[in-house]
Amino acid sequence: MKSPAVNRIPRRGLMFVVSSPSGAGKTTLCNRLLQADPDLSLSVSATTRKPRPGETDGVDYHFIDEDKFLSMRKDGAFLESAKVFDNYYGTPKAQVEEALSSGKDVLFDIDWQGAQQLGEIARDDLVKVFILPPSRDELERRLHKRAQDSAEVVAARMAKADSEISHWAEYDYVVLNYELDESEALLQSILVAERLKRTRQIGLGAKVKAIIEGED
Ligand SMILES: Nc1nc2c(ncn2[C@@H]2O[C@H](COP(=O)(O)OP(=O)(O)O)[C@@H](O)[C@H]2O)c(=O)[nH]1
Ligand SMILES: Nc1ncnc2c1ncn2[C@@H]1O[C@H](COP(=O)(O)OP(=O)(O)O)[C@@H](O)[C@H]1O
Questions:
Q1: Could you report the predicted ipTM of this complex, rounded to two decimals?
Q2: 3-state SS, residue 54
Q3: pLDDT of 7 higher than 60
Q4: Topology at the third CATH level for domain 15-43+104-212
């Protein structure tokens, strides 16, 4: 789905965080948003997790080893970082700063720990969305359907689901992911409305002045 233009004036970039229990569909939905929206750029995280089949280094994640991760973290290279399912994950600073300064909005597929940390450094620019599965059974079906993790890994992710879901109330928006098309449209609506917030439209004062003075 193509994203509608939003007022065609300069505005502040926003940081769009999408979290969910593993398997609820956030990666699929994020990929759809990115395809539909040239103004949105993905923050590619670094992780010590092994790549899944079909994942590409530098595109889905920067796959690095633990030594490298810990030394980057020590050097302050991450905006936020967390341990999830026994692996380290972190958001490299440089890429986010570059995207925001070039006028793009940045999409983060990160967990609640990362969302909390970003909230401490960029509250006004942050929009947080939590994706829920329609049911526990459907969550388990989706984890199996993805067929990229062992039965053991799927069981571990199901065991963690309740504690992840318990953070839902820390988010600005909650989307129940029944159908992909429907959920994509809901996420797109959130993005458009957030882009239209008066405080983000930094070009609005000049535009209003030009309208009043008949210059446009
Ligand atoms: N805090 C934080 N969490 C991340 C980051 N990158 C990914 N995650 C989260 O780590 C969890 C595991 O991700 P992944 O191994 O790709 O499995 P998924 O849950 O199936 O997407 C998910 O909740 C991701 O949102 C990051 O840079 N920082
Ligand atoms: N609304 C949906 N209906 C049916 N299957 C879905 C839906 N959303 C996601 N899926 C499937 O569920 C699996 C897990 O989705 P994924 O995006 O990898 O989840 P997450 O990133 O939250 O772990 C994938 O096989 C994906 O195609």
A1: 0.97
A2: coil
A3: yes
A4: Rossmann fold (3.40.50)
